[in-house]
Design brief:
7 helices, P5C_Rdtase_cat_N, ferric-chelate reductase (NADPH) activity, alpha/beta, oxidoreductase, STEAP_metalloreductase, 196 residues, NADP oxidoreductase coenzyme, single chain, globular
Length: 196
């Protein structure tokens, strides 16, 4: 299984630290060329490999850690996303009316035809996400939601490998709304740092 993080700002780097802590290789990419990402990647660990966007989208599991408005540009990199699992770590302040009254992940998934789409890792602040999730004798919770149960199980397995305790909230329009922006209000579980 190959992994990539697209977006190498504070959230992308925090997620890369989780991979590095667990000795799991991950490609990181952004609009900047790989050599521009190299200093931060090397500071995080040797298994964090800078690549191009085209290289990143070849991974089996891709974490989207870009600004929400950038997801469409990423979606255009492949005509067919079949066989890919996309983890949506994005948040948006866009009013729900501008998202066709859909949860943000269901709206974003339209740009990735054929992909299995899972909301996850979006509810923790970057500094919290960057820290070791094994704390206080337990594991920091990461909330997941998707309309694809098999994809949720796959991402839950990855979350466990990264040291988190995954909690499946169900489908996008059910429990998923607890960790997504609705209009100008955040879901009630956004930025909750819970342990299991």
């Amino acid at each position: 299984m190959s992994y990539a993080i697209i977006g190498f700002g504070s959230i992308g780097q925090a997620l890369a630290r989780a991979f590095a802590r667990n000795n799991i290789e991950v490609t990181v990419a952004s609009r900047r060329p790989p050599e521009a990402l190299l200093p931060q990647a090397q500071a995080i660990g040797p298994r964090v490999i800078p690549g191009t966007l085209q290289e990143a989208v070849q991974a089996d599991v891709i974490i989207l850690a870009v600004l929400f408005e950038g997801h469409r540009d990423i979606g255009k990199l492949l005509a067919d996303w079949k066989g890919k699992t996309i983890i949506d770590a994005m948040n948006t302040n866009d009013p729900v009316e501008t998202l066709d009254n859909l949860p943000s992940s269901a709206f974003a998934a339209r740009s990735f035809p054929g992909a299995r789409f899972v909301k996850g890792f979006n509810h923790l602040l970057a500094r919290t996400l960057a820290s070791d999730p094994r704390v206080q004798g337990g594991h920091r919770v990461v909330f997941l939601s998707s309309d694809d149960e098999a994809a949720t199980a796959q991402v839950a397995d990855l979350a466990k490998r990264l040291g988190f305790a995954p909690v499946n909230l169900g489908k996008f329009d059910e429990g998923g709304s607890l960790v997504q922006a609705r209009g100008r209000a955040w879901g009630p579980l956004i930025f909750q740092d819970l342990f299991k």
